[in-house]
Amino acid sequence: MSRYPSFKNSIWRRLSFLVVIFTLVYFPLSAQATEKVGYENWDEVVATAKGGTVNWFMWGGADNINQYVTDYIGKELQKRHDISLNRIGINDTAEAVNIVLGEKQAGIDDNGSVDLIWINGGNFRTMKQGNLLFCGYHGLLPNNQFVNWQDPSIANDFGLSVDECEVPWNRAQFAFAYDSARTQSPPKSIPQLIGWVKENPGAFTYPAATDFNGSVFIRHVFYHAAGGPEALLGDFDQDKFDAVAPKAWAILNEMKPYLWREGTTYPNAIASLAQLFANREVALYFDYDPAIFGINVENGIFPETTRSYGLDDGTIGNTNYVAIPYNSPNKAAAMVAANFILSAAAQYEKAKPDVWGAAPAIDVGRLTKEEKSRFTELPRHPAVIDPAALSQKSLPELHPDWISAIEKGWQENVAK
User: Which Pfam families match (predicted)?
Assistant: First the structure.
């Protein structure tokens, strides 16, 4: 079927189609975007940003990430552009979203408190649906050339089109970890895990659905119950949910008596699960950011024999982003910060295992030969699975409405 079926039936409509193509070729989307956001070119953005401040609200629960943002990104922005970066640590991205929402309700449309947010998923949906985002500026950013917007996992945030309202920061994918000195053959698929839990009572648990990583684990079981994620992609479908959910709850309830503390309680955060693994109370750990395995080894929290792996039936991955609120008073400075985040230098620094070890959000293949070699030559901590190998079996994230329904269903049918 044609993408433009209404253009089929008349010569006039075909000519109209040619006019549209001509317009896009000679007046590219980047030019249209610059008009939309009020800047003629990148030089004007940089000049306006000089001497400005960026209040970046971001999850502050990881010391290494905080240090990277403050000591590297902050100092580079100051040195290169005379921009002051003010990192504001929060426990939940929703805190920043609620600030912007509250300001809109109060009529504060030009002088908001938030200039940049580390964001994705449901929080992005909330801001996009509420017209709380500054959009249309990708064409201005020189480093946007390094982003592969043809990749659906980049162009869509939990099933929602980015629409030039976010800039990718890094990619993450769920992975498991185990102590190779204690566990010889960890389970390599969800069906294997279900059997392994029953064969090793008390050696496994997962955080409650209120924790991000706990919710992701539950979604893996939901995918298994559905026969794969394909049937669940797109907008939420109550009939599909009602068909799959009882199977998923049955699996999790069947596992429950064999969990740590016989499933009478669940860790309330991923940090609690990390502590259980460190204390050898459980044999398996998992995280949406596999770099944490190596960091915890280096910090003496996990044993040196920690190793990590993906699942044969795949693990969920996503891209996370930075976004500029519609009422940021420092949009030019925020755009300069977003552009620097996309640079080969910033992405390389972030990828260093002793800094963060995060997978790059840019397409390394688009860099110069010298820049590409720097990435390929990066050492990898032995506790951290090769991101390239892990990504070969990456599963898509669900639309936020699916996630909300699954989390609520778990609370009602498993936790209780």
Answer: SBP_bac_8
